[in-house]
């Protein structure tokens, strides 16, 4: 009887215990399921976050590429506009000639028209020469006859660079622009300060808003004119004292190939002579020959352009002096620099009778040669050395 009662008591107890165990197992399974779902959601959220980061980075790269291409398109737009305007002018001129010839039927008349056109062309050429002489001041009548001597003023800076005085100012300040890509000008009170061993500490530093490219920059009347780094053919006009950009221009046709084969970093070489600002560069359309352009340094407008017969092959530098281009050549391995191509824009010099002019007492190469019309000297940068060449001149014949 007692055993029977115990059975009746144990059955409900065991049933309740087994039920509780079953509920615990179900809860554990539910918790495990929930945990797995949460882990799955966390992984998906992590992947989504990583995808978002990848998309953001990809969008940034795309934005940089678009901005870069837009900047390039602005340059190409101005260049294409200039070329289209030039093409339209040529088309209009050709159309006038075609219409004129089309109205003439008699062969004799055609011959007379041809002679008239030749006379007209010769007359226009003479008028153009007169205009150029007025613009360039024909009283500039001296030419380079030789390089008398050299003086190595100092050896400082990189292999490539440029140094100069401002021929348009009365002060004696020296400017040093080190490297083929940089944005800091060093200004010295005079050449003695520059020659001191601690000259860097005594220099006034002028930081440009945009770095330069090459070594073809020039300082004139308080302004630095230079080729902007990263642009095809943009020339910047920078006020050194006020430290701001006052103007800029695009030089048509320039910037695609180096101005000189032996100085590949310089696409546009700016120069100063008695007539003001010039640009020297090479073009594919001229077979790599050098092109010179007269620029109005005040308005930054192109005044005239000349295609020369001087090749850029094996050229290392060039300079303008009294309306005349002098191109300096060398060997690719370095040697004695020499002037063996001369081009006078007014045809006042018989270039075929000019002998080859050698630079004295020096083996090496130049990254920059600038003529100073005020002192009638060349300021050159050769393998990290700052050099002054004194010149011997004579009257043009």
Automatic annotation (TrEMBL):
<feature type="signal peptide">
    <location>
        <begin position="1"/>
        <end position="21"/>
    </location>
</feature>
<dbReference type="InterPro" id="IPR003112">
    <property type="entry name" value="Olfac-like_dom"/>
</dbReference>
<dbReference type="InterPro" id="IPR050605">
    <property type="entry name" value="Olfactomedin-like_domain"/>
</dbReference>
<feature type="coiled-coil region">
    <location>
        <begin position="38"/>
        <end position="97"/>
    </location>
</feature>
<feature type="domain" description="Olfactomedin-like">
    <location>
        <begin position="139"/>
        <end position="395"/>
    </location>
</feature>
<keyword id="KW-0175">Coiled coil</keyword>
<dbReference type="GO" id="GO:0005615">
    <property type="term" value="C:extracellular space"/>
</dbReference>
<keyword id="KW-0964">Secreted</keyword>
<protein>
    <submittedName>
        <fullName>OLFL1 protein</fullName>
    </submittedName>
</protein>
<keyword id="KW-0732">Signal</keyword>
<keyword id="KW-1015">Disulfide bond</keyword>
<dbReference type="GO" id="GO:0007165">
    <property type="term" value="P:signal transduction"/>
</dbReference>
<feature type="disulfide bond">
    <location>
        <begin position="140"/>
        <end position="322"/>
    </location>
</feature>
<dbReference type="Pfam" id="PF02191">
    <property type="entry name" value="OLF"/>
</dbReference>
